[in-house]
Design goal:
This protein is α+β, with helices and mostly antiparallel strands. It is built from 8 helices and 11 strands.
């Protein structure tokens, strides 16, 4: 209790009385020299003592103060003040930034998609469909060069992209990758009792393309894109899982982000031979 008035009356000393000495104080009496030695042990800093407690005497402190020549000071604080050494990477040289894509980026996406073998590329019409139907599931990494003051700002260059749709299946399927025949007039397309293309409300984000311009591969563009994409989907909490198909040599790359291999995929897009990753 912080308020003394709340203390029990028997615990409070009377104002007119002082603390009584120990009953055996006489037995503890010491010689002057012994007392001085004990005082030095208990009070090595030679602070003044009042009732056994050290107090700081400002006057004595001034007398004991010793000026230190700055030339003799340790230089260690300098090393703590130095900024950390940062080695710029090839990615830094691109001055990259990420943002969602739209139909206005279709031509850029077609250019980036040329990094894939022709049978595995997304068509221009599919890009228009996916970026008009579900642009919030896309992400692009752009580069914008540093320009001199007064020079017109150039158009940013798309270096890499992730394009995806939703599906109710746990993995990427051929149906989820198909282009619905009536997508321009119908929001949903059902063929043979099953949805085709993008499914609104589907619990799986089906990534159909993670591509990087050939001249910028090996600069951590793909890994930066994937990390950013996963964080965005996780924070938005808009799906239960993210799925992708990949060839065998890329499985370790996706596993490094937390994807798990589900074996050979049934998807035959581009000739098949894919691995399901979720």
């Amino acid at each position: 209790m912080s308020d003394p008035s709340e203390l029990p009356s028997e615990s409070m000393p009377r104002a007119e009385s002082e603390l009584k000495p120990l009953s055996n104080a006489e037995d503890l009496a010491l010689s002057n020299s012994a007392s001085a030695q004990i005082a030095r042990i208990l009070n090595p800093t030679d602070l003044a003592l009042v009732n056994g407690f050290a107090i700081d005497d400002d006057e004595d402190a001034d007398e004991d103060y010793v000026a230190v020549d700055q030339d003799d000071a340790n230089d260690m604080p300098y090393w703590f003040r130095r900024p950390p050494i940062y080695n710029r990477s090839k990615l830094d040289e691109l001055h990259p930034f990420v943002q969602l894509l739209s139909v206005s980026n279709v031509d850029d996406c077609v250019q980036v998609e040329n990094a894939f073998p022709e049978p595995e590329r997304c068509s221009r019409e599919k890009f228009i469909y996916r970026l008009s139907r579900c642009p919030e599931l896309s992400l692009g990494l752009f580069t914008l060069p540093v320009i001199e003051e007064g020079v017109p700002k150039p158009r940013a260059t798309l270096v890499g992209h992730i394009i995806a749709t939703r599906t109710s299946e746990p993995c990427v399927t051929d149906r989820s990758m198909r282009l619905p025949t009536n997508w321009q007039s119908e929001r949903w397309t059902i063929e043979e009792g099953q949805a085709v293309g993008h499914e609104e409300g589907g619990g799986t984000i089906a990534i159909h393309s993670l591509a990087v311009l050939p001249e910028h591969q090996g600069k951590q563009v793909g890994s930066t894109l994937m990390k950013s994409y996963i964080n965005r989907i996780r924070e938005a909490q808009i799906a239960d899982r993210i799925a992708i198909i990949a060839h065998d040599h890329l499985v370790p790359f996706y596993e490094s982000f937390g994807f798990e291999s589900h074996g050979l995929s049934k998807c035959q897009f581009g000739g098949g031979g894919w691995v399901d990753l979720v």
